[in-house]
From TrEMBL:
E.C. code: 2.4.-.-
Residue ranges annotated for the Glycosyl transferase family domain, each copy included: 186-315
Presence of keyword Membrane: no
Protein name: Glycosyltransferase family 4 protein
UniProt organism field: Haloechinothrix salitolerans
Single annotated GO MF: glycosyltransferase activity
Domain of life: Bacteria
Keywords: Glycosyltransferase, Transferase
Glycosyltransferase subfamily 4-like N-terminal domain mapped to chain residues: 22-168
Length: 367
């Protein structure tokens, strides 16, 4: 099967979306699928391995209004086009081009139909939701990563078929060992979305004598790095909190392996890649109950799960370092059982083949 993954900024800066596309691309290549990554012509990147990088000309100013030109010709050789994320003009234009070319398309929302996320949209929301509803209505399917996300998609368009398959993760040989004296966080300094305000306010309510040190590393997002530093200062917790820049590769792995645990207080997250990475390493995780993984993590005892009220999260934060060892092996078992590519990919490919075949039958196109 020849799949095309389309995201205008696919070759741009690292993000959760590009990380997700890269993970699926690598796994699909390993499963002997033919993969094309379509993008807006930004400099090439090696994050997609042996996949073909196919630039498409775009016009327009800024992400909300920038659209592809000549997209129908660019996708005509594909069996299926995969559209990533939502709420910007490029995807509806790509969906229309795919229909003109007779190519079925699948939408991967990356969690952006979650009600809290939708509430962040600028007004007017009604016409924007109408556009996304039309894109979903014309889709062969929506590929969601957890059942809860399917519910969010169906709030936008009830009729769309959902294929449920999360990204997979490997369990590496390296494994966390107790002994770290700080809590770790890394990600994007999107203060509200990532719940960094909750984390810092909860930390500040713990008595100074028992307050655990916290180290943060990440990329700036709309001034979130400065906002985080300012909040640390306002709460008078600079002695306990280190706010740093991004870390990658071995430095990131050493950072969490040497910690007492990883904290992830997000208000929403389709799949928190950072949490899955840490679970696979056996790093104890404290997560909010708002993320899609939370119910399964709680059921398997694979992480500490807390609500986002300041008092509740503060209590969880204070006791979390003592609970590390009970979660370490459970987290690795969780990834091996629920987030293994070996378990995920066969079912995903069967479902995708069904979607493509049924869509081809409806439009009378033999693939």
């Amino acid at each position: 099967m020849k799949l095309g993954h389309y995201y205008p900024r696919a070759t741009g800066p690292h993000s959760g979306v590009t990380a997700g596309i890269a993970a699926w691309t690598t796994a699909l290549l390993d499963a002997n699928q033919d993969i094309v990554v379509l993008h807006d012509g930004a400099p090439d990147t090696d994050r997609y391995g042996a996949a073909e990088l196919r630039p498409v000309r775009h016009v327009g100013k800024g992400r909300p209004s920038r659209v592809p030109v000549g997209m129908a010709d660019a996708v005509r050789d594909l069996d299926v086009l995969v559209l990533h994320e939502a709420w910007f003009a490029a995807n509806p234009a790509a969906a229309l081009a795919a229909r003109r070319a007779g190519v079925p398309y699948v939408v991967v929302p990356h969690g952006v139909f979650e009600p809290t996320w939708v509430s962040y949209l600028k007004q007017p929301r009604t016409p924007r939701q109408a556009v996304e509803r039309a894109v979903l209505r014309g889709a062969a399917a929506a590929h969601v990563w957890f059942p809860r996300e399917a519910e969010h998609v169906h709030r936008i368009e009830p009729s769309v078929r959902c294929v449920v398959a999360p990204p997979g993760f490997d369990v590496p040989a390296e494994q966390w060992r107790p002994g770290g004296d700080y809590l770790a966080w890394y990600g994007r300094y999107a203060v509200t979305n990532k719940g960094l305000d909750v984390l810092l306010r909860a930390l500040a309510t713990i008595p100074a004598s028992s307050r655990p040190p916290l180290r943060l590393h990440g990329v700036d997002y709309e001034g979130g790095l400065a906002r985080t530093k300012n909040l640390v200062s306002e709460l008078n917790i600079t002695r306990w909190v280190d706010v740093g820049g991004p870390i990658w590769g071995d430095d990131k792995r050493d950072f969490v392996l040497n910690s007492a645990g990883f904290v992830h207080p997000s208000r929403w997250d389709c799949i928190p890649i950072a949490v899955a990475e840490n679970l696979a390493l056996g790093v104890p995780c404290l997560v909010s109950d708002a993320i899609n993984l939370a119910p399964d993590l709680a059921a398997d005892g694979a992480a500490t799960v807390s609500g986002l009220g300041i008092a509740e999260f503060s209590a969880a934060l204070a006791s979390f370092p003592e609970r590390g060892e009970e979660h370490a092996n459970a987290g690795r078992r969780f990834v091996a059982k629920r987030l293994s590519w070996g378990e995920i990919m066969p079912g995903y490919l069967r479902n995708l083949a069904d979607v493509v075949r049924e869509s081809g039958a409806r439009c009378g196109r033999a693939r």
